[in-house]
Write a structure and sequence with these properties.
51% of the residues lie in helices and 8% in strands. With 143 residues, the chain is mainly alpha-helical. It has one domain. A two-stranded antiparallel sheet has the order 1-2. α1 packs across α2. The chain is globular and about 40 Å long. The two termini are 19 Å apart.
């Protein structure tokens, strides 16, 4: 649930102009908005407490469309702390294709709706494929 919530926050940030460039920094705005949505969706789920932002911020990179510009060569084998991320990640970014897609209001809305319905709302029976980009799942699958 944490990665879809983070995606909603990132989409909202693009839409509101907080993120005018394809560079996402773990900052106060991102943390605050993430926690607000996370609390909202945690109440609607079986989870007891919200997941901290460092988990989805780091693990979203396993989905293939989220990348880091690191300040260090240090490899992490576990989820790093929020402090480590702030100190060692210059920024995160989307694949260029997804970034371009997010510049269009209609596609942002469609992606947001898909995430809410299929990833947070329990609706649909879309199978996850870790090798596909999120926007391919949205626009190219049989969901």
């Amino acid at each position: 649930m944490a990665k879809p919530v983070l995606m909603l926050v990132l989409i909202d940030g693009v839409e509101s102009g907080v993120f005018a460039n394809n560079r996402f920094v773990l900052n106060e705005w991102l943390e605050d908005h993430y926690m607000k949505l996370m609390i909202q969706y945690t109440r609607q789920s079986q989870f007891d407490k919200p997941t901290e932002i460092n988990n989805p911020f780091w693990h979203l990179s396993t989905d293939g469309f989220w990348h880091f510009q690191l300040k260090t060569k240090e490899e992490m084998s576990v989820t790093p702390s929020k402090a480590w991320l702030k100190e060692n990640v210059s920024y995160a970014c989307f694949d260029e294709d997804l970034w371009v897609l997010l510049q269009n209001k209609e596609w942002r809305t469609r992606l947001r709706d898909f995430i809410v319905e299929h990833k947070l709302g329990g609706g649909g029976s879309c199978k996850e494929n870790k090798n596909n980009y999120l926007f391919r799942t949205l626009f190219g699958s049989a969901c």
